[in-house]
Amino acid sequence: MMSRLPNILTFSRIAAIPVVVGLLFIGSDVGNWTALGVYIYACVTDFLDGYLARAWKQQSSLGRFLDPVADKLFIAAILLILVGIDRITGVALLPAVVILCREILVSGLREFLAEVRVGVPVNRLAKWKTTIQMVAIGFLVTAESGPDFGPLTTLEVGLYGLWAAALLTLVTGFDYLLAGLKHIHRAES
User: Fold this and answer.
1) Does the pLDDT value for residue 13 go beyond 70?
2) What is the DSSP string of 119-165?
3) How far apart are CA 55 and CA 71, in angstroms?
4) pLDDT tens readout for residues 149-159
5) Element (H, E) at 91
6) What's the chain's average pLDDT?
7) Averaged over 153-174, what is the pLDDT?
8) What is the CATH number of the domain that holds 89?
9) Tell me, what's the pLDDT at 65?
């Protein structure tokens, strides 16, 4: 089970966390661009592990557990290092906090709903949120090492993207909360 490619990809995403964090901590252009390369690899594995598991009929309990854990560890670690190296500062901390809080909320809901044997499917808007979040964080990873986009720097593009992801995070988090509360109410009845 651990030797199946989808699970190996998930483990590699977890292994990418200290690599990206270390490269960002170095603070050089080469470190930023290399961190972006590893970050992109991890984002691709986020898509591939689930896709391959379904396509090859290799879905497993380990994979169902590990994939969302890897996602949350990866995003939390990257956001925290971006705060630590002052790429996310001031009021821009708010979208990062919203994203982290939603991840914790959804994890808690999924854990509870699993106990009452109810699955919560990922909706299309949540997939868009994830995509925008991944792209925004990619811009934040390169920051001052990246090119300007008209009047906006790479860092500014990343911060605007983070705000957009946080807005979608609020909407999708609220949807998950409402769905979860319905099941919580039924479980107590």
Assistant:
1) yes
2) --PPPHHHHHHHHHHHHHHHHHHHGGGSPPBTTB-HHHHHHHHHHHH
3) 20
4) 999 999 999 99
5) none
6) 89
7) 95
8) 1.20.120.1760
9) 84
Which tokens is 74 given? 């990866």
Q: 152 — phi, psi (to 5°)?
A: -100, 140
Q: Which tokens sit at 98?
A: 């919203």
Residue 184, pLDDT > 80, answer: no
Read off the pTM.
0.89
Residue 83, classed as helix, strand or coil, is: helix
| Buried b or exposed e, range 44-62, using 16+ CB within 10 angstroms | ebbebbbebbeeeeeeeee
Q: Which domain holds residue 158?
A: 5-188
72, with CB counted inside 10 A (0-12, 13-18, 19+), is middle
Residue 43 is encoded by which pair of tokens?
């984002």
Using left for φ > 0, alpha for ψ between -120 and 50, and beta otherwise, residue 27 falls in left
Nearest to 156 by CA among 60, 82, 92, 96: 92
Q: How many CB atoms lie within 10 A of CB 140?
A: 29
The number of domains in the chain is: 1
pLDDT digits (tens, 9 = 90+) for 93-118: 999 999 999 888 888 877 777 676 66
How is 14-57 classified by DSSP, letter by letter? HHHHHHHHHHHHH-SHHHHHHHHHHHHHHHHHHHHHHHHHHHTT
